[in-house]
């Protein structure tokens, strides 16, 4: 089995688009497709389901992806070690992040790592929700994750690096949009747009929690997988939502943000890792994070 086949497989699996994967690899699409077909032939199972509109991993492809990533990571680490020798810090640290939870802190950390140790590579793994990153840190498939509290998984340490206010997003022609601030209780009879209930969204969980503290359950009339879609639906008048200050850069016609009145409407952002992770590169990144990112609280 040729190494280039594995590299091509990971590119297609992450892009879920042969054209984008070919561009990423700096090659034409037909040879890429041939490599994937040859790999599937060698394995004896299909790795992708393809049609004219989409590409998706089969169950065999999903099972194959993480082991292949580890093989490539280990190989790259070996090559880096051979090239770097004793010249200083090197290695790879896989970092999970999701949307607003790392919007400000992630660039600060990546720039600081690059400045301190150019031979140390951060491998970015985008997640749908911060809770997914936390779960992958807990099971060892990620070294480091930008997550939100609470962190309850055994064997995982966390350091809070930021905190954000929850705000209300609502249609600009909504009567509550005339107010300077909105009480949670004012939303008791409002239709909500929110993340799916079973997706592990900390924003959805926080919404249910703060509404419950005011004696009601939010009436969710529409669910969407990301903040951009949720806020587009709010702008269209489907309902209101609770979101975070880091999402206020999303500006759409017909959409306004208002602060919430009263205390306690905050979510904390943390770095999470396993203290038993033997990676020296991870220890270097954590030391850099101590200097580059503020420390608000420690939760172990």
TrEMBL record:
Species name: Prauserella cavernicola
Pfam hit, one: LysR_substrate
Lineage: Bacteria, Bacillati, Actinomycetota, Actinomycetes, Pseudonocardiales
Similarity comment text for this entry: Belongs to the LysR transcriptional regulatory family.
Protein name in the entry: LysR family transcriptional regulator
GO molecular function, one term: DNA binding
Gene Ontology CC terms: protein-DNA complex
Keyword Transcription: yes
Entry-linked CDD domains: PBP2_LTTR_aromatics_like
